[in-house]
Every structure is written in structure tokens, then in C-alpha cells.
Specification:
Elements: H1 2-35, E1 75-84, H2 91-97, E2 104-107, H3 114-123, E3 128-134, H4 154-167, E4 173-178, H5 186-199, E5 202-205, H6 214-220, E6 225-227, E7 230-231, H7 238-255, E8 258-263, H8 267-282, E9 285-288, H9 290-295
Parallel strand pairs: 1-2, 1-8, 1-9, 2-3, 3-4, 4-5, 5-6, 7-8
Length: about 300
Amino acid sequence: MASQMRRATHNLVILSILALILVGVLVVRELIDSFGSSSTPVEPPPSHVGYPEAPAELSTIKEDSAEPLKQETIARVAVVIDDFGYQWPQDHVQGFINSKYPVTLAIIPGAWASKRTAKAANENGHEIIVHVPMEPDHPDDHTEEKMLNWEMSGNEVFEYLDWAFASVPYALGLNNHMGSYVTTYAPTMRYVAAYCSQNDKWVLDSITHPKTLLYAKAVDRGVKAVKRSIFLDHEDDPEYIRGQLMSAVEKSKRYGKVIVVIGHPRRTTWSVLSKEMPILAENGVEWVYLSEALENVQQP
């Protein structure tokens, strides 16, 4: 009898030790995700050479998520314009900054006009996010020298994002500039999500690669996040841009949701938007800031 009791006690001790080890592993993993690891990842993400580019138009709304819009509103569209920071005096750039309709400006950190653009946009009541340079599949002449890459430790990601947000005052969140390589790498995206969680920042996944994990990891951390639905100006052509804009309106009408479109500070893009936004507004389209899309996002 005494022997059986000793064995039972022994087994209970072993189970308790195993339970403590498991809890310890989970705690350590959570700390690594939250504060970053000082070590560098060993295995790089797989190369995506030959993988199809993320399409200009995506189905990011669930079929069963439709809900009625206000009677006087036929559609709600959030316009995000990327790549601010390297232009300033041009008429079309000033047009976006001074637009009387809601435009969310995504500003590249560290560029010569980043801070003045953020200041002017904020004074006009526009929302601002950091357009964070991220490692692409195929670097080219437009690739930023200082960018977030897969080799960064958690601490390095946090330091980089601290610098990026300091470079773009008034920024409420971030989206990715390029990033077709690193956005598919789970550890780095977990670090980005942890940073946003701790600093109360939003995430817009521009979806520059079909296998991006930026949105998914943000949602896992409870970060307010949304996906891009449509790129407006893959082609620098007025009719193409107008067609993409109307696709956004039709999607919003169909699903009863804010549709997020991304464009760039180009003369053609501004020419189309400056003409179409007032006309569509008169016909029931409500132009909103990115925060409206975040508030209404359907999480997976």
C-alpha cells in the first residue's frame, strides 16, 4: 500500500513538473513575441520568384457579411494614397494634401518631405499612416535603403518602427511599402504586430503578395487591421483608374462595407479623383477615412 502511494506521489510530481515546463515555454514564447528576440532567425523565408503578383483587385469581404447602408448612402469608400515623402510642391501632391474629401496619406519615413507632409495633412484634418518600407522579392531602383527585413531580430524591428513613427508625426498606424518578401515571413510579422499592439497603432495590409501574413498576425494580436481591396492605379491611365474606382463603389454597394482602395500621388490619379469624388458624393457615395474601415472590418 505504501509503495503504491509513493508511486502515485512520484507520478503526480512528474506531471506537475511537466505542467510547469509547458507553462514556462508558453510564457517565454509570449515574451519573445511581445518584446522581440535578440537572436537573428536562422532560416530565411522561401523565395517567391515566379509567384504571381497580388492582383489589383481582391475579394477581402466575406459573402455573408453584407449589411444595409444608410438610406441616403449607396457606398462607402476609403481612399489611401501611398508614397508621400519625396514630393511636395507639385499641384497634384498639394491637391491630395488639401483635399476637402477624406484621404488617408501613407508617408514614407525618413524622406526629405515626410515631416512637412504629415504636418500639413494633419492641419487639414486628414489621417496619416507610416508607409513602412519592407523587403521585396526583387529589389530595384525604387527600393528604400533603410527597410524592414527578415533578418531583423525583434528588438531591431521595434527600434526600426520607433524611428519610422518618429519620422512621420501624427501617424495612427502603418501599411507596407513593397514587402512582397518579408510580409510572408511569420516571425517578422509577429514582431510588427506586437509593436502595433503595444503602441496602439493600426495595420493596413497592402497585400503586395498573395501569401502575406501582415493582416493575419495583426488580428492574432488583437490589433485593429484591414486589408486593401483595390489598387487604383496599377496602370497610369484615366479610364483604368476610373474603372477601378467604380469597382470599389460597386463592391461597397454589394456588401454594405467600407472598401479600401490604394493609389499613388500621381498627376493622373489626382486628376481622376478630383473630378470623380465630388460627382460620386452627390450621388450617394460617402468618402471616409481608413479608421472607418477598421471599425467595420470583418475578422476571419
